[in-house]
Amino acid sequence: MRYIRYAFLAALAIVVISVSLANRELVTLNLLPAELAEFLGLNWTISLPLFLVVLGGIVAGLVIGFIWEWLREHKHRRVASVKAREVDKLEREVVRLKGERNQNRDEVLAILDEAS
């Protein structure tokens, strides 16, 4: 399974490198459309190679998706945490009740009772 993962990563690296080499032309990115930038006085532009724009968009989408999922699953993690605390509480209560039940019994019988 490890070799399949390495083969997949190598193929992915080859594809990313070939796309990067094929798209080295510079493109200009504008923060706002030209008319709106003139009206607001925010004429922010940057020139980057096209492959950086494409790969940056993919990375930004992945990061936004991971954050969105983490926020969406918050309620499930909270419920799991509450259930785990409840299980711990009940396990402590079971141990306490077994101790009370075996308090006046022979130690050997108490050990055998706990084992079953």
Distinctive features:
5 helices; two-stranded antiparallel sheet; 2 strands; single chain; 116 residues; mainly alpha; 2 domains
- State the end-to-end distance: 41 Å
Let me know the number of strands. 2
What low-confidence regions span 5 or more consecutive residues with pLDDT below 50? none
Q: Mean pLDDT, nearest integer?
A: 88
Shape estimate:
elongated
- Cα gyration radius (Å): 31 Å
SS field, number of helical segments: 5
* β-strand amount: 5-15%
Helix content: over 70%
Q: Which structural class should the secondary elements be placed in?
A: mainly alpha
Number of domains: 2
Q: Order of strands side by side in the largest beta sheet? A: 1-2
In short:
This is LapA family protein. By secondary structure, the protein is mostly helical.
Give a verbal description of the structure:
The protein is 76% helix and 9% strand. It folds into 2 domains: 72 residues, no CATH class; 43 residues. The chain is mainly alpha-helical. It has 5 helices and 2 strands; from the N terminus they run αβαβααα. The chain is elongated, with a radius of gyration of 31 Å. The model has no long low-confidence stretch (mean pLDDT 88). It has a two-stranded antiparallel sheet with strand order 1-2. Pfam families: LapA_dom (PF06305). It comes from Arenibacterium halophilum. This is LapA family protein. Keywords: Cell membrane, Coiled coil, Membrane, Transmembrane, Transmembrane helix.
